[in-house]
Amino acid sequence: MDRPLDRKIETPVIQAEGATTSTSMLFQKQLLATKFYVPMASGPLISRPRLTTLLDECLKYPLTLVSAPAGFGKTTLLSVWGQSLAAKHVRLAWVSLDEEDNEPRLFWTYVLSALHRHRPERFTPLLAQLQSSQGPPLKYLLMALINLIAESAEHFVLILDDYQVITEQEVHTTLAYLVEHLSPQLRIIMATRANPSLLPLSQLRAHQQVLEIRTTQLRCTAEETKAFFKEVVGMQFPDQTIQEVTIRTEGWLVGLQLLGLSLPERADPLTLLEEASGNQRYILDYLTEEVLRRQPQEVQTFLLSTCILDQLTAPLCDAAMQQHGSQQLLEGLEQANLFVVSLDSKREWYRYHALFAQALYYRLEQTQKDLLPTLHHRASLWYAEHHQTAQAILHAFRAKQWPWVADLIEQKTHLLMSQAWGASQHELVMFRQWLEQLPAEVVHSRPRLCVACALLLWQVAPQPTVEAWLDTAEAMLTASSTTQTDVSPTMPIPQAKQGQENLLGEEIAWRAFLQCHVGDGQGALSLCQQALSLLSADNSAIRAIVNWTQFRASYVSSANDAKASIQSGLQAGSLAQAAGQTALAIVIMGTTACYMIGAGRLHEAQRLTQQAKLLGRQQAGFMLPYVGYPTLFQSDILREWNQLDELPTLVSEGIELCKQTESMSLLIHLLYGYGILLRVRLSRGELDAASSALQEIEHISMGMNQHLYLHVRSIFTTVDQVRLWLACGELERATHWVERLDLGQRPGTPFEHEREEVAHARILLAKHQPTLALQRLEPVLQRATIAQRRGHVIEIRLLQALAYQMCDQEMQALPALSEATRLSEPEGYIRSFVDEGTPMAVLLSRLREEQRKDGLTPYLDTLLATFQQGSKGQWVTEHTTVQPLLEPLTERELEVLQLLARGASNHEISQKLVIVIDTVKRHVSHIFSKLDVQNRVQAVRRARELGLLDE
Fold it and tell me: Minimal CA–CA distance to 661: which of 552, 574, 587, 609?
């Protein structure tokens, strides 16, 4: 995990945008404020000093977890205890969470806003940066927040209520980061119905950083049950009755409250509980019905009609019920303590207790099911009028008003598409859930909606679904264009037709983009030409996308020309930059750097990633999150140059930056990120961490378009996945993979098959089948050579050299290795050699022997010296002994050394190894030379010191 800061983070102050006085903005501010008010119970409460005393202990812990199912009084307890903080000179910041707060920046906006309400002058700059569309990465803001709190002389308690709605991993991760680095000036309390699965509770417990208050402590005791009936209900019962009620309700506070409301005067609570025998769900439903039956008809109607709303305000309730007087009813419910909670000091916003609302909704479904769609539709219209799109869409779906839903989603997608690229990862999931509910006849009658659906969900929806959306949009647009042309072919093209042609051009452009990403490079190039003929001249953003698509497609297509492809990538980046599409330009530069690495142009790729990072910094004074993508490939270059010490941190930072973008290629960027992390961990010999990176890749793939995922994996991670399996000794697993991989029939591009063939060759070498490996590698080498992908040529040549060595064909192995070094020396390749382990070191040593006859060999010296760096994990060979020697021993010399250590004579060694005496003497002489010793005794002692002997 990251360690505490060594320095303070200087964060730029950004001017807030001009405020408006529109009704919608005032509503936004008012609704936002309801999340920060401490819910206050209107009726009498019993004193629970044992729990408030326990909560006082939370001031000693960075995090307190109050965890219990619904109805055990978590919120009430915290709100009552929170009132005592003022006497301790501690400021209380409260946030009531809901599902929309899974968006990381929105979550932290609410957290900062809660703190901001107490000290605006301290938190305003951070809040302004967080809410800015050009704000810095989230981690930088958290660092700055940690600094601010550490400098403060004041103390705060932050309560996060209903944390169980948070499921987004990044929210858990960033909150855990804050907790780990928290100073005593801030304490966090989390009220939740279930343990946050992704929060590192075990680690927090081990470091005594968390206090836990669970259901066992929150259950009402018999004494508290007795006090409740006496002080709240105004009734007294025998101790035996109290004991039975406590046992039957299991100390469930909401059950006691419902029971109290359901009791007529002088009734026995046990009688009601006998009638409501069953689990808590049944008791809740039964007692709610009893409570309803005791209310006037007007109140019953109001409760049932408004239980569909997450939050209540008089104008919204009036709209849902199409009547007036809701404010008086809300205030009356609060005074009667009917499970309604005020959310602000002005008594304008309320909510029902969650369990009570569920029970009311169940009752409404049973008695007036036909009314539900009408109520939801009215609520949707009200939310839309007040610019609350998410809530409007939610209620529109529940009302099954499909055309209205489509209108709202189009509005939302236009908002997202007007940003840098598309939707965040959380919004992708949310959109997929929305769109999958839409009837086909609605989606397929709106071409722009179809294009938007494909654009937003191409990474997560099945490939046939994405293609169906585009097919439908294209069919509608083509038919409409033909109809207009047939009506008046001699008239000037009307503006509407120009708009339709431009939209058709966008649809075809996106189709080309998607085709390229699933491997159909040739088809994508043809579609790009069609798109350019239809797009309007001023549609610069989509034209930049077309150029980028042409660049990617030419790399993976049968054209097989890396040089031309890279040149197209550079041009596409320039066009995007000229069009003002900074985010797109940075991403294109990152992709171009990736292809440069494959072409063996490491220095040029490094310069390009630096340019991308500079571009991202120039735009806002700090690093835009889009630079995370080129940062990943910069890490891969540094890995090849053997600069491994800081790389895990750099790659992780790149991944985190990518997560903060709104890139429509977000999931692909994460696949590349964890793929590079896998390579880094392999180079460091950290196999467990490498396996974790591979698991992250597989986890991301579970929610992805599988066709797209298989394409990305084939071209980027397949070889490294096989390397990991072999390093872990999982040869059987690798063999099973290659048996299932029918290279002759499996669809895909030649480039995909090329990488799979390289992986296959590695498996054959592991199985000691070098001849078959050489057969696999030859056509792959020819194709990579023609395409001028020198990075891949180097890898293939190294594998050929190893295969020839395994065949005892040194005369063929050394030329292959020499060609690899000739190509790699100008670019400074190191890890490609070192990661192949001892056999490569032996070959390099032999090549240096040969080339030293013609002069100095500085590059080979550097490579061989790197093999000595195993002490820091720079070179770890999983299946052979690490040799900290400038010139490692060959496999045969190691065998001779083992026999020397056992006291074998030259004659015994010759018989054991089936070689002549002169050959034994030559091996012994080489061993003495490499170990820098004079005799056998010194050689054995030195070998033991170096760990070269199998004891």
Answer: 587
Tokens 């990403």 identify what position? Answer: 517
Handedness of CA 604, 609, 610, 612 (dihedral sign): positive
CA 592 to CA 594: how far, in whole Å?
5
Asked whether 733 and 771 are in contact (CB, 8 A), the reply is no
pLDDT tops 60 at residue 951: no
Name the DSSP class of 339. Answer: S
Helix (H, G, I), strand (E, B) or coil at 340: strand
Q: Pick from 309, 383, 379, 389: which is nearest to 350 by CA? A: 309
Q: What are the tokens at 777?
A: 């590698």
**DSSP bridge pairs for 795:** none
- Look at residue 622 in the predicted model and tell me its pLDDT: 63
CA dist 889 and 893 (Å) reads: 6
Contact (CB, 8 A) for 272 and 290: yes
Which residue from 728, 892, 883, 878 is spatially nearest to 805, judged by alpha carbons?
892
Task: Name the average pLDDT for the chain.
Answer: 81
Homologous superfamily in CATH for domain 746-887: Tetratricopeptide repeat domain (1.25.40.10)
Helix (H, G, I), strand (E, B) or coil at 438: coil
Task: Name the helix (H) or strand (E) containing 189.
Answer: strand 186-192
C-alpha of 348 from chain center: 38
Written as six digits, the tokens of 79 are 């709100």
In the block, tokens 């054959």 appear at 764
Sheet holding 349-352, edge to edge: 312-313, 349-352, 340-342
User: Per-residue pLDDT tens for 223-243?
Assistant: 888 888 888 877 888 888 888
Pairwise CA distance, residues 584 & 578, whole Å:
11
The upper half-sphere exposure of residue 150, i.e. CA atoms within 13 Å in the direction of its Cβ, equals: 17
Domain ranges for the chain, please list them: 23-218, 222-293, 746-887, 891-945
- Residue 491: predicted pLDDT: 43
The three-point CA angle 339-342-347 to 5° equals 135
Angle between helices 326-335 and 297-306 (to 10 degrees): 100
Q: Spell out the residues 6+ positions from residue 180 whose beta carbon is closer than 8 angstroms to its own.
A: 1, 2, 62, 209
Model confidence at 6, in pLDDT bands (50, 70, 90)? very low
CATH of domain 23-218: 3.40.50.300
What is 343-374 written as a DSSP string? -STTS-EEEE-HHHHHHHHHHHHHH-TTHHHH
Q: Residue 133 is encoded by which pair of tokens?
A: 């569309």
pLDDT value for 428:
61
List the structure tokens of 476.
């509608």
Q: What is the pLDDT of residue 901?
A: 84
* CA 290 vs CA 264, 280, 293, 339: distances in Å: 10, 15, 5, 14
N- to C-terminal Cα separation, the chain: 38
Select the more confidently predicted residue: 16 or 531. 531
Amino acid, single-letter form, for residue 794: I
Fold of domain 891-945: Arc Repressor Mutant, subunit A (1.10.10)
Q: What gap in Å lies between CA 448 and CA 476, rounded to an integer?
A: 10
- Which residues on adjacent β-strands are paired with residue 926? none
Kindly state the helix (H) or strand (E) to which residue 709 belongs, with its residue range.
helix 706-716
Q: To 10 degrees, what angle do helices 138-151 and 104-116 make?
A: 20
The DSSP result for 65-131, as a single string, is EEE--TTS-HHHHHHHHHTTTGGGTEEEEEEE--GGGGSHHHHHHHHHHHHHTT-HHHHHHHHHHHH
CB count within 10 Å of CB 185 equals 15
Give yes or no for residue 518 having a pLDDT over 80: no
CA angle 329/332/338 to nearest 5° reads 105
Spatial distance between the Cα atoms of 868 and 887, rounded to a whole number of angstroms: 9
The dihedrals phi and psi of 63, each to the nearest 5 degrees, come to -130, 135
pLDDT exceeds 60 at position 24 = no
Distance, in Å, from the CA atom of 334 to the CA atom of 208, rounded to the nearest integer, reads: 41
Strands 210-213 and 340-342: unpaired
